Amino acid sequence: MKNLVLTEIKGIMELLQANFWWILLLITVIFIFLFKNIFMRPDAFTSKFEAEKKLENTSSSILNIISEALKNARFKKVGFDEEENRFYAQSKVSMSSWSEYIEVKINTSQNETELNFKSMCALPTQIYDWGKNKRNWKKFDKELKKLMPT
C-alpha cells in the first residue's frame, strides 16, 4: 500500500516537472485575468501608450478632422461616442501584435482643444508591444498635422 502511494506521488511529480512551463504560463494568465477583474482595471498589465496634444485655434470641424486623421492613418472601425466625447478605432493585425484599440478623447475649452490619445493592445495578456502603440500615435499625429488648418 505504501509503495502504491509513493508510486502515485512520483508519477504526479514527474508530470508536474514535465509540464512546469505550461503550468507556470497558465497560472500567470489566470493571475492577470483575476487581477484585472478584482481591481476593475481592464488595462492593467496590457501594453499601452498614452499621449496628449493641445490644439489651438479650434474650429467647428475638429471632429471631422480627427475622424479623417484616424482613417488616413489606416485604422479601421473608426467611430465616435457622443456621450463620452471620444473617438475609437482599431489597428490592423501585424507581426508585432494582434491589433490595438485606439481611443481619442476630446476636451474642448473656449480657444483650445485637448486630445488624449490612447493605444492599447487588443490581446489582454500582451505585456510588450514592440513599439507598435507609439507608432500608432505617430501615424495619427502625422495625419492630424496634415489636416489641421495653418
Explain what this protein looks like in three dimensions.
- By secondary structure, the protein is of the alpha+beta class.
- The chain folds into two domains: 2-38; 48-147, Alpha-D-Glucose-1,6-Bisphosphate, Chain A, domain 4 (2-Layer Sandwich).
- 42% of the residues lie in helices and 26% in strands.
- It has four helices and five strands, in the order ααβαββββα.
- The chain has helices at 2-18, 20-38, 62-72, 132-147, and strands at 48-56, 76-81, 86-90, 100-108, 112-121.
- A five-stranded antiparallel sheet has the order 1-5-4-3-2.
- A hairpin with a 3-residue loop joins strand 4 (100-108) and strand 5 (112-121).
- Helix 3 packs across helix 4 (132-147).
- The longest helix is centred in the first third of the chain and has 19 residues, at 20-38.
- The protein is elongated, with a radius of gyration of 23 Å.
- The mean pLDDT is 89.
Which tags fit this structure?
150 residues, alpha+beta, Alpha-D-Glucose-1,6-Bisphosphate, Chain A, domain 4, 2 domains, five-stranded antiparallel beta sheet, 42% helix, elongated
Provide a short characterization of the protein structure.
Helices cover 42% and strands 26% of the residues.
Shape: elongated
CATH architecture of the largest domain: 2-Layer Sandwich
The order of strands across the largest sheet is 1-5-4-3-2
What oligomeric assembly is this protein in? single chain
CATH class of the largest domain: Alpha Beta
Distance from N terminus to C terminus (CA atoms, Å) equals 87 Å
Order of helices and strands: HHEHEEEEH
- Decide which structural class fits the backbone: alpha+beta
Number of separate strands = 5
How many domains?
A: 2
As for the CATH topology of the largest domain, it is Alpha-D-Glucose-1,6-Bisphosphate, Chain A, domain 4
Question: What level of helicity do the residues show?
Answer: 40-55%
Summed up, the helix count is: 4
Measured on Cα atoms, how large is the radius of gyration?
Answer: 23 Å
Strand content: 25-35%
Q: State the major sheet.
A: 5 strands, antiparallel
Weakly predicted, low-confidence segments: none
What is the average of the pLDDT values?
A: 89
